[in-house]
Design goal:
The complex is a heterodimer. By secondary structure, chain A is mainly beta. Helices cover 14% and strands 39% of the residues of chain A. Classes of the chains: A mainly beta, B mainly beta.
């Protein structure tokens, strides 16, 4: 049993994907939260996750934040992104009339479960045009390797 | 699901083409109106601010800096385009609108015409 699980190191994300596919097929539910750490639609920042042959890529759509104030941590394979977004609206005095306040503000924090086969020491985070991209490398052992045939 | 997996793998093609309205903050002070719009992933050359008569539209295309061979596992953002239109009132000075884009936030400053700025009316006593 254990061995079978070890042969499928990406099972966490695969399960998530399969579940989503099943959900959308049988009930027409698109984007229903699947993982234990997923939250309802409309959370800040919104997150996309993808996978390549050598890394897991996490994109957080977090516009208008000072890059130095974003905190990115990985603990026990959970990636956490947190920070503060300050409001651009001047303090409410009689001279300012507020018409629309849709942009989220204040402290934010989101967490993403990473697969078991990532290397938490090989992480890169970049912030550009309001998107934070975190690349977490996969363990070398988990990356596809070409085996030479003798 | 097919659509979702294309979301992050391609840069712009393959996206759902209906635009999404960006979240905005709008406030007014004595000098004019300030508008902030969240447009993450939109760079300066993919942003369009247009004024047509009294209609002001902002539009931007999202560019995700993703490796080509990437397979999407989870996608909360699946729309590549932001668009929203506002109707301006006449006291705003369209010629002096200023736009600034930083870290995915568009800031528009719409100043009032000089004659539309508040002034104190003298009350004459008879």
């Amino acid at each position: 049993m254990l061995e079978i699980m070890h042969t499928r190191p990406q099972s966490l994300f695969d399960q998530l994907e399969t579940m989503q596919r099943l959900l959308s097929r049988s009930f027409g539910v698109e984007g229903a939260p699947g993982g234990i750490r997923s939250v309802a639609h409309g959370a800040f920042p919104e997150i996309n996750v993808g996978r390549t042959r050598t890394s897991v890529e996490v994109f957080a759509f977090a516009p208008g934040i000072d890059a130095a104030s974003i905190e990115v941590t990985i603990e026990r394979n959970v990636l956490k992104i947190s920070g503060v977004r300050t409001s651009a609206i001047p303090s409410r005095d009689t001279k300012t009339q507020l018409y629309s306040n849709e942009r989220p503000e204040g402290r934010f924090s989101r967490a993403v479960s990473l697969p078991d086969d990532v290397d938490p020491l090989k992480v890169e985070a970049r912030y550009r045009d309001g998107i934070l991209r975190v690349s977490v490398s996969l363990n070398v052992a988990a990356q596809p390797q070409r085996i030479a045939v003798q | 699901m097919a659509d979702r997996s294309e979301v992050a793998t391609t840069k712009s093609e393959g996206f759902d083409e209906r635009p999404v309205a960006p979240a905005v903050d709008i406030f007014e002070d004595a000098g004019g109106i300030t508008l902030l719009a969240d447009m993450p992933g939109v760079s300066k050359d993919r942003l369009d601010v247009k004024l047509d008569g009294d209609s002001l539209s902002i539009e931007g295309r999202v560019e995700l800096d993703a490796p080509r061979e990437m397979r999407a596992l989870w996608a909360e953002v699946s729309v590549p385009r932001f668009r929203r239109t506002f109707t301006l009132s006449r006291e705003l000075d369209a010629a002096r609108i200023e736009a600034n884009l930083k870290d995915g936030v568009l800031t528009l400053r719409l100043p009032k015409q000089a004659h539309a700025q508040p002034r104190r009316i003298e009350v004459n006593s008879a």
